[in-house]
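so my prof wants the structure for this chain in the tokens format not the other one, which i didnt know existed until like an hour ago. anyway here's the sequence
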Amino acid sequence: MKKNFIIRAADSSDVNYAQEIVQEIADSAKVRGTGIAKRTPEYVSKKIEEGKAIIATTKSGEWAGFCYIEVWSHGQFVANSGLIVSQKFRGEGLAKKIKEATFNLSGEKYPEAKIFGLTTGAAVLKINSELGYKPVVYGELTQDEEFWKGCQSCINFDILTAKKRQNCICTAMLYNPAWEKDQKPKRTQWKGRELDKDLKLFERWLKFKKTVLLKREAKKNKNGK
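here's what i got, hopefully its the right format
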């Protein structure tokens, strides 16, 4: 039986969930065997207190899910980051609802900003696509140095550096409010595909990309010895 959750903008009363949120993000990345930028409880707490986060809880007050907003390039870009759902509440469709709430909050706070994300999760890619994001080349994202510094704690940072920040294991996705005015996206990686309806396409793409990039990195390291 699916549970009913309270999904809302987080406030200062929610900082007590910060440690649990950070631990769940780290544990999830370890299980998937993927890289992820590390978050600290202090950083998550700051986002909560700034009103730049969405939190989900049960009616009894148990933490269930979270996502937050980051602002880059003087407000030209916004990222919805750290999407996570508690292990015990997965399979309830909660991630999609949290992501949608964060997306809407981003639009309210920064109506002209481009919203982007980097992820290795096929489910997140599908959710993003349903919200109007398009897969894009890395050059379409913010070039803010502080954003890219956040990738330094990721296990795949060497690949990102070797590719001169133009590619990595993560797939880049972007939503541009200008597209709502019938302006087409510039450089997308896929064309003419109904990505929001094809999860298997995402899964195949991620598997292929990870295999190719990791194989190239391994070959490079071998030849460098």
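also thought this was worth mentioning. Confidence is low (pLDDT under 50) at residues 187-193.
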